[in-house]
């Protein structure tokens, strides 16, 4: 249950040294997660607008092995690595020419946004199944 998010590195993605400015990895992980959720389960906009569910970040990290440069074509391989009741962990791997250049993760809460109040709620069984994880035990 993996999604591949393809992107091209542009000059505007780089810093003064000509390599990708590190915050862009977090932007790309966010994009890849939204794409993964849409492909495997439901469009995140529908989740937010019709079900009042959002997926805010609790924790994130990224390890860099090799720099990305202007013009590089990158594949971000993403999958839900773990689901713990109200929290999902998404793993991301960045590849250039089949070479791993970075790896990262995001921990997100399955959160109900009702009347402006946020409350973490259990990930629904159908979402667990869609992401290839066992449903919660009763």
Automatic annotation (TrEMBL):
Q: Does the keyword Ligase apply?
A: no
User: What PANTHER family does the annotation carry?
Assistant: 4-HYDROXYBENZOYL-COA THIOESTERASE FAMILY MEMBER, NOVEL THIOESTERASE SUPERFAMILY DOMAIN AND SAPOSIN A-TYPE DOMAIN CONTAINING PROTEIN (0610012H03RIK)
* Family, per entry: Belongs to the 4-hydroxybenzoyl-CoA thioesterase family.
Q: In which organism is this protein found?
A: Pallidibacillus thermolactis
Q: Which InterPro entries does the record associate with it?
A: 4-hydroxybenzoyl-CoA_TE (IPR050563), HotDog_dom_sf (IPR029069), YbgC/YbaW (IPR006684)
Keywords assigned:
Hydrolase
- What's the superkingdom here? Bacteria
SUPFAM superfamilies attached here?
A: Thioesterase/thiol ester dehydrase-isomerase
- This chain's protein is named Acyl-CoA thioesterase
Q: Name one Pfam family in it.
A: 4HBT_2
Keyword Hydrolase attributed:
yes
Signal peptide (UniProt feature, chain positions): none
Output the CDD domains linked to this UniProt entry: 4HBT
